[in-house]
């Protein structure tokens, strides 16, 4: 494709950029996975979210440190309890609770 003066038009970067971002953060993705399956292994979470298992471990630690989840040991597995009454962190959505996010996105 040319621009009229024999120049080649720039590559369509819109499609390339569209594949590199999502509306939710990895923290939200991890939280939603644990809401759907409270005893999911972190390895499985990492596969679903598309990030490393170590990144999932850091996110789970963040969520636990800030009081969004509790971790209970059940045999050799963990069970994640989500505190639904907590407010979301960003000022734009701070009026919403975790329960609102989960009920919207988890069927």
Name the features.
11% strand; 43% helix; 107 residues; two-stranded antiparallel ribbon; single chain; alpha+beta; 5 helices
Structural account:
By secondary structure, the protein is an alpha+beta fold. The protein is built from five helices and two strands; from the N terminus they run H-H-H-H-E-E-H. It has helices spanning 13-18, 26-36, 42-49, 53-65, 98-105, and strands at residues 69-74, 77-82. Strand 1 (69-74) and strand 2 (77-82) form a beta hairpin.
Compact description:
This protein has five helices and two strands; from the N terminus they run ααααββα.
Largest sheet, spatial ordering of strands? 1-2
User: What is the element string, with H for helices and E for strands?
Assistant: HHHHEEH
CA(first)-CA(last) distance:
45 Å
Task: State which percent range the strand residues make up.
Answer: 5-15%
- Which regions contain 5 or more consecutive residues with pLDDT less than 50? none
What would you call the shape? Answer: globular
Number of helices: 5
Count the beta strands: 2
- Mean pLDDT, rounded to whole units? 88
Layout: helices, strands, pairs:
Blueprint: H1 13-18, H2 26-36, H3 42-49, H4 53-65, E1 69-74, E2 77-82, H5 98-105
Helix pairs in contact: 2-3, 2-4, 3-4
């Amino acid at each position: 494709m040319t621009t009229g003066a024999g120049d080649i038009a720039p590559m369509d970067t819109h499609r390339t950029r569209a594949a590199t971002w999502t509306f939710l953060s990895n923290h939200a993705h991890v939280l939603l996975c644990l809401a759907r399956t409270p005893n999911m292994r972190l390895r499985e979470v990492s596969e679903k979210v598309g990030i490393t298992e170590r990144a999932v471990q850091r996110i789970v630690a963040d969520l636990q440190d800030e009081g969004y989840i509790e971790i209970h040991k059940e045999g050799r597995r963990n069970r994640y309890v989500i505190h639904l009454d907590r407010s979301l962190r960003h000022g734009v959505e701070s009026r919403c609770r975790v329960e609102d996010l989960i009920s919207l996105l988890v069927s």
